[in-house]
Amino acid sequence: MKRKRITRFKNARGIRILRCCASCAHKEVDGEGHRICHALMLIVPNNLKCRKWALKKAYLSAGNGGGKVKCLEYLMYVRDKRLVEQELIEQGVITLAQQMSCRELRRRFNKETGKGIYAIK
User: Fold this and answer.
1) Which is it for the CA torsion 23, 29, 35, 39, positive or negative?
2) What's the rounded Cα separation, in Å, for the pair 37 and 121?
3) Phi then psi for 95, rounded to 5 degrees?
4) pTM higher than 0.85, yes or no?
5) How far is CA 61 from the centre of its chain?
6) pLDDT mean across residues, the chain
7) How far apart are the first and last CA of the chain?
8) Residue 43: per-residue pLDDT
9) Which regions of the chain does DSSP assign to beta strands (E)?
10) Left, alpha or beta for 65 (phi > 0: left; psi -120 to 50: alpha)?
11) What's the pLDDT score for residue 120?
12) What are the phi and psi torsion angles at 18 (to 5°)?
């Protein structure tokens, strides 16, 4: 196994990613913290880059977001509602299936405050 110089590349969103074992799809960490390469079937050092390197899917879409930044007021509203629901579940008043959906929480927040949930318009 020959060690190669670690290089970087940019994904579609312009996020720089290291080409090494840390970003490899074949990497797993065992219970003792050893990094195991399933392609090579070896315990490997952190900065190894080999020919079997393949980009992990999570890094391919890094920077994509999948959503927008929520405003702090909305996040605190959701936290408060979920804490009340958790207490009601523990007391047996409601079941987990009866708690409000995210859609319902957004609708109620908008109705009660007249504001949107996103920090950036």
Assistant:
1) negative
2) 44
3) -100, 170
4) no
5) 11
6) 82
7) 51
8) 85
9) 7-10, 16-19, 27-29, 35-37, 42-43
10) left
11) 67
12) -75, 140
